[in-house]
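Below is how a single chain appears once it has passed through the pipeline. First comes the sequence as given, then the structure the pipeline wrote out for it. We keep one example in the README because the format questions we get most often are answered faster by looking than by reading.
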Amino acid sequence: MKLLVLNGPNLNLLGMREPEIYGHETYAALCEKIRAHAAACGVEVEIFQSNHEGALVDRIQEACGVFDAIVINPAAYTHTSIAIPDALKAVRIPAVEVHLSDPARREAFRRVSYVRSACVATIAGHGFDGYTEAMDLLCRMLKS
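Resulting structure:
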């Protein structure tokens, strides 16, 4: 099984960006946690981060026929992008939306997710563990 993990804008700044919301762990630590969990599950993983919506859309499109599932934290694009869910729907690869914090407990504009409609599940507010939970959910789903 091959998983693609996509991370949107500003996630590269983890550890320094609003640590009271996102914690003090770095993006490198997140990537290491994802890689370690993938190895423990016997899953291949590729991780991609971009601050640019088009780059994320391109990567989703390129995943078609290559990856079995996608874990995506669209970050701010969750609330603004139509292109990202359109790309996810077009490639028909099962995807799980992940958020480190819980958007439902933050500003009102963060409660709207355009991406959710293109995903099989959403995991929010579990920090880095949300990524491993998403990976486990997709593994179970694809093995059944």
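The two ends are 13 Å apart (CA to CA).

See the next section for the split statistics.
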